[in-house]
Request: fold
Amino acid sequence: GYEGSPSCCAQIFSQENLFYLVSRGLSQEKARATLIRGFLGSLFGKDEAMKELLNLKLEKILQNKNYAQSA
Reply:
């Protein structure tokens, strides 16, 4: 599981990491989702069922947000 400090979490979601992913062609939204998935993956280690559940929940949140923004 995850054993980092709060400052480690801040580093994962830093503007530099976000900028890097966006500069590689990802939208801001997809870049954030990628960082979140990476962080959550580190939290749950080898628990593939939990990772899959979290990925499904994250996708649903992003789809609802995109729907709300387009309405």
About this structure: The first helix runs from residue 6 to 12.
